[in-house]
Amino acid sequence: MRKKRRLAIRTVILSVLVLSIASVLFLNGKTDERETAAVGQEAPDFVLQDLRGNEYRLSDYRGKGVFLNFWGTWCEPCKTEMPYMEKQYRKYKDQGVEILAVNVGETDLAIEKFAKQYQLSFPIVVDKSGEVQKAYGIYPLPATFLIDPEGKIVDYIEQPMTEEMIGDFMERIKPE
Amino acid sequence: MDNAKCECGHVNPHGTVFCEACGKALYNKEEKLLDMRYEGKKRRSEKYNRTIIDKIWNFFSSVKVGVTLIVLALIASAIGTILPQEGNINIQSDPGEYYRETYGWFGELYYLLGFHNLYGSWWYMLLIAFIGVSLVVCSLDRAVPLYKALKNQKISRTVIFLNRQRFYNKTAIEKINEQDIEKIKERLQQRKYRISEENGNILAEKGRFSRWGPYVNHIGLIIFLIGVMLRFIPGFYVNEFLWIKEDETAAVPGTSQEYYIKNHRFIIDVYDETDGEVYKKALEEKGAIVKNYQTNVTLYKADKKLPGEKPELKKVGDYEIKVNHPLKFDRFALYQSSYELNQFSKMTFALTDKKTGESLGNITIDLDDPRETYEVKDDYTVEIVRYFPDFEMADGEPRTKSMNPVNPAFVFKMITPDKPEGEISFTAIQQTVEPFGENEYKMEFQSLETVSASGITVRKDLSLPIIALGGIIFLAGLVQGSFWFHRRIWLKPEEDYLHIAGHTNKNWYGFQREIEKIVHGTNIPMPDDQAKK
Question: What are the residue boundaries of the structural domains of chain A, listed by start?
């Protein structure tokens, strides 16, 4: 009897300790990884304005695929990608896939010159406060999120993209 | 596991050091004195070792293991101070690359092993957690048997037990009379001893509570560790940093955009003559000495909103944040912890006729929000064709390294009545290039406006009261164990002799002096210190 009780007490004490250690390690591990905007999660909603002051709200795009791209004019791969994105945008726009290009907070002048230079027709919004970048855990640029018509993040791309890749991505989030 | 049977016939649990009944040593029989630690009880863990649970328990019950864990944690913490921790340096690039580039192979190794973020690395935390487990198990394993042994201790001990105590003596029983015993009892009581008697045997004991000191101390440590653990629960602990320029309004990080501050002004005050004669010499020797770093801010509260959405700010109040005088609100504290002077904010240029040197007027460009065209005067306009806030040349092309205006450069188009199609000029700091031949006009640099930026640390720590409680209990345990002594005196009359023995957990000298005073003037002999012989 006594031995059984002792074993039970030890088991309880050790499991309480193990459980608390495990939960701390788990919570700590979570802060290391992407806290928000992980693949499979719902894409965090946001409201941003373009240079003309038009508001864009992500949740307004339900039913459409969203190619969410974060960029800056100084980011070299972004410069390469932009023309590809523009081409694919024209192709997939009528098939229900939209591009939202979020500038990371540069001056209106820099953005305007850039958009003109590359003749970009998709909406460009500016994240001056950096809040959207924080919500999506952006680092470094370029960063692209594929969001399906249900508003779920399908994929997160941190590397420079080729035109074929962009085309494949568009296919993946195209509504049925 | 076998139980140990003593010569006297009593069956002791396995691992017992000396017989529970007669006090005969079961191990180290040739030793003159008994090992009184844990009252001769063996640590519980050493009694049973059957299941996996017992094995884990026994591992953590070992003081050797505990000390090893502490030493490992100490070594790791020491290594963690060799290079700066990731959180304490402002890394713009990938941290792994940063450590490799800055510190070479050692930096790379440092990063790979997780030393760059030591206090958050899983193995360091596991080490600390193991120390916690070791504390709990070690304490339970020792405190429980000790408590039981002291609670159930016998009043009448055997002679074998008494004469193997460090303090022991005996005298012929005829020499002792009633008064001696009464006197000694009275003196013991005066000295706060608790006296129990059984058939003429006397046990006088005091300060038993000192024995719990180490365990109280461990409870404090465990509470301390629980407090540290709580920091990982979201909302319990915030430690963030915010760079904010003058005139800028920004969300306070860690508050989920619930609070905003606006930086009105950053101030550095230095001591000068007006502060009085006493500072004169120091000022002559050292030059400017800073008296105060301060940021004047307005605190705002914002309603819940989506990221990126313009906040609806409600003013909470105007405050001054000074070093050591944080702004406190809603359990957050904002500390003045850094600053940067002279960040470029506005540049003024004059459109100048190169031949005559005549200025046609100034334009002032806000480096954080430049316009496309600037009217100098009628028929004279300047256009910004390209703007490079952080200019560099790469592969013969001008470009910007970042979006921060640290080294601004412009491509201007100067439209004048003489040159209606415009002249192009590339203008950077102390550098002008006219890529399409000699121009008639130039943009002459006039002045630069700068702003200061404040570095504000944002802290919230709800675990602090728990950590403080743990610390207080820790110290209480330390005091309890250090400044009180557990002393026991046994008296045993027999047919021929009266035996006297004493035991204390520390400060034998003080104990000896006390016994001297107790037995003084009686026929009861002063016990000898057997350890000295």
Answer: 1-33, 47-173
- Do B450 and B345 contact (CB within 8 A), yes or no? yes
Is pLDDT at B2 greater than 70 in this prediction?
A: no
Contacts for B430 with CB less than 8 Å, ≥ 6 apart: none
Q: Do B126 and A25 touch (CB under 8 A)?
A: yes
Which CATH superfamily, name and number, covers A47-173? Answer: Glutaredoxin (3.40.30.10)
User: In chain A, which residues have their Cβ closer than 8 Å to the Cβ of B132?
Assistant: 17, 21
Size of interface A-B (CB pairs under 8 A): 107
Q: Rounded distance, CA A23 to CA A67, Å?
A: 36
SS (H, E, C) chain A: CHHHHHHHHHHHHHHHHHHHHHHHHHHHHHHHCCCCCCCCCECCCCEEEECCCCEEEHHHHCCCEEEEEEECCCCHHHHHHHHHHHHHHHHHHHHCEEEEEEECCCCHHHHHHHHHHCCCCCCEEECCCCHHHHHCCCCCCCEEEEECCCCEEEEEECCCCCHHHHHHHHHHHCCC
Flag if B234 and A21 touch (Cβ within 8 Å). Answer: no
ipTM metric: 0.77
Residues from chain A that touch B56, judged by Cβ atoms under 8 A, are: 14
Task: For residues B268 and B270, give the distance between their C-alpha atoms in angstroms, rounded to a whole number.
Answer: 7
What number of CA atoms fall less than 13 Å from residue B54's CA on the CB side? 14
**Which residue is it, tokens 């065209």?**
B373
Q: Which residue of B has its CA nearest to A17?
A: B133
In angstroms, the separation between the Cα of residue B369 and the nearest Cα of chain A is 5
The answer to whether A72 contacts B54, with C-beta atoms less than 8 Å apart, is: no
Helix (H) / strand (E) element for B305: namely: none
Any chain B CB within 8 A of the CB of A140?
A: yes
CB atoms near residue A117 (< 10 Å): 12
- Give the per-residue pLDDT at A27: 74
- Average pLDDT of the segment spanning B102-118: 88
Query: Do B403 and A135 make contact, defined as CB atoms within 8 angstroms?
Result: no
| Mean pLDDT score, B329-354 | 90
Residue B92: pLDDT band with limits 50, 70, 90: low
